[in-house]
Amino acid sequence: MNSEILIKNGRIIDPANDIDKKCDVLITDGRIAEVGSVKKTVQTVIDAEGKLVTPGLIDIHVHFREPGDEEEETIASGSTAAVAAGFTSVVCMPNTNPVIENETDIEYIHRKARQTRKTHVYTMGAITKGLQGVELAEMGFMAEAGAVGFTDDGRGVQDPTVMLRALKYAAMFDVFIAQHCQDEAIAGKGVMNSGYYSTILGLPGIDPLAEQAMVWRDIQLLKKTNVRYHAQHISTTGAVELIRQAKKDSLPITCEVTPHHLLLTEECCAEYDTNYKVNPPLRSAEDVESLKQAIADGLVDALVTDHAPHLQSERELEFLTAPFGIASLECALALYVKALIEPGILDWPGLIRLMTEKPAKIIGVDKGTLGKGKQADVTIIDPEAEYTIDVSTFRSKSRNCPYHGWEVKGKVEKTIVGGEIRYEA
Amino acid sequence: MALKRKSKQFKWHRKHLLGLRELSAEEITYILDTAKGFEQISTRSVKKAPPLRGKVVVNLFFEDSTRTRNSFSLAANRLSADIIEFTKKDSSVSKGETLLDTAKNLEAMGIDIVVIRHSAGGAPRFLSRNIDACVINAGDGFCEHPTQGLLDTFTIRKIKGTLEGLKIAIVGDVAHSRVARSDMWAMTKLGAEVTFVGPPTLMPTEIGRLPVKVSYSLDEVIEKVDVINMLRIQFERLGGNPFPSIREYSHYFGLTVERMKKAKSDILVMHPGPINRGLEMESEVADGRNSVILEQVTNGLAVRMAVLFLVNQAAAQSK
Asked: Which chain B positions have a beta carbon within 8 Å of A196's beta carbon?
C-alpha cells in the first residue's frame, strides 16, 4: 500500500480553510494527515516547488454517455480524461440511454466507476421519468442509492406544476434540484443564439429570453418550497440579474458557468463550425461580460465543463442537424485560467474555491478541502506551464472541442485520488 | 463607366458561390457583366456554347424546386456540361446517408460542380469545406439564394441602368427568406437603398444591424420606391401563427391594383416565384405592365450560366 505521501514545498491553496501558503502536505492511509511544515521521512516524496497544491478539482456537470452511447464516451474513458485534467470527482448527468431514473441505474454508474478506479464518479438522477417532464422519477430510491441531486439536463422541466411538485417532493431528502434553464416554447427549434448572427446565417435562433423566463419561473416556485435549487450552465445577462436578486432575497439558489460561455461568443458560429454548437448556445459579448462580472461579484457557485462528447461523424453534419455539445474536460483548467485569472477576475484561491469547496457543497459531499482527516484528493498544478491544446492527445473518446490549437497556460502535474497517485504528467 | 472598366481588369478567383454577403461590389458587377455576355446564347438558333464541355454538373436538390433546378440544368446544358439530377426523393438520403457521404459518393464519380439546395442554412458552405468540386448555392434554408439575388439585381440593372441611388422595397416574410437576404447584400453593395416591409413578426432578429430600412407600412413605402420585390408567403417555413389570417395579411401587405395606383408609374414589380396569386399579389399586377417577373426568369438563365462559367474557370486556374 502507498501508505504515506509527502508533498513538499508547494503553494498550498485550500480555500475551505482559508489557507494560501507555501508548506507541505502529508497524506497517510488515504487521508490528509497534516498541512504545514512536515519533517517526517516517507517513501513517496513529491517535490512541488513552484507548483500549486489544491484540493482535488470537482466538476459537477459532465456527460459520460454510459449507458447507451459508449462509442462517444464511457465512464472509463471519461474518468481517465478527468483525472488527467486534475479532477478527482465528477458528477454525471442522467440523460443517458436509458435515462438514469432508478436506484439500479445509479448503482450501475457507481459500479463502472469502481471498475475504472480513476476519479470519484457521482451521478445525478432524472427529475422526471424518461426526462419527459410529466411524472416524477423515483427520487427517494435514487437518493438512497447515492444520487447527489436531480436534473432533466439536456432539457428543462417545462410544466410549472411538475417542477413545483419536484421541488416540494425533493425536500424529503438531502438533495438539490438542478435545472437546464430553457423554456422550450420560446427556444423553439433554435440551434444558436438569436441575434445578428442567426439572422445573417439563416439559422433558427434561441432567444436569451428562453433562459431568463425559466430562471424567473423557477425562482417564483422556489419561494413556495424549501429545497436547494441549482441553475445549470447559465449563459445570459438576464439569468445573472435574476439570480443576483434571488440571492439577495436569501433563496437557496446556486448556479454554475461553463468555460465556453466565458470564452466564446455567437460570432464563433459564423462559419457553421459544429464544434461551436452547444446548448445553451454561445451568446453575445455582453452576456460574456455579465457572466464574468457575476463571477467577480461572487454570484457564481461552481465552474463546470458540461463536457458533452460526440462522435466525429456527428460533427460532420450541417449545423442545423448536428447535436449540441462541447467536449472540454481535458483542457478545462487552462480555459478557466485564460477566462478568469489572466484578465484578473479571480486569483488562484478564488478559482480553486469555485472548483473545489463550492461545488462540493452544492452536491453535499465532504470533499473539496485539504482539512485534516479528509479523504486525500489532491491536485498539483503547474500554474506557469504553457502548452498548445491538441485534441488528438485527448483521453476522451471524442474530439468535438473548439479549442484545438489554443495557446494556454496552467497544467495539471499530478492527481491524487483517495491517497493514490492516479495521474502523473 | 468607371465601374465597367474596373470590372474588366478584375480577375474572378472564387471556385464556389456560397452567398453574396462575402462578395464585393466589384465581384457582383463582374458576374453581372459576364451574364450579359451569355444572354445572346439563348437567342441564337443554336443555343449552345462549349465552355463546360466534358464537365459534370450535379443538381443536388434536397428541397422542392422547379424554376431554379430547371434553370440551372438548362444553363449547364447550354454550356455543354453533362448533368446529373439528384433529388431527395430518388436519393439514399431517405436511407439515412449524411449530406457529406452523399456528396463524397457523387464526387467519387468524378463531378466538377455541385449545385446544392438544402433546408439547412450553411449546408453549401459545409460542403465546400469538405469536397474538391465547385459548390454553387441554389438556396440554403433562410440564409441565402445568391443566384436569385444576382438575377434580381441583373434585371433591375438591365432596365434601370444602375442600382446606384434606387429605392427598393422587399415585402413579406423577410425572416424566413433567403431571397430577401441575398437581394439585400447584392443591392446595397451596388448602392441601392433597400427597405424591408412586413409585419414585425416576420422580421429577423437584430434587423437594426443589417444595412436596410424597415417599415411595417406598405402604403407608406410604395409611393417612394423604384422597385418592389414581393416575397412569396412560404407556408412551409412559417412557424406558429405570425399573422392572424391570410385575409388580414393581404389587406396590409398584398400588392393590389388599388395599391399600385400610389406607385411611381415606372415601378418595377418583381417576384421570385412561385406566386400565390391573390395573396401577396393580385393577378392583374402580376401580369401587368410593370411586372418583370418573367424577365427575371429569363435573366436567371444568363446569370446561372455566368456563375457556372466563372467557378469552373476559377477551379481550372487553381489546378
From this structure: 205-206, 209-210
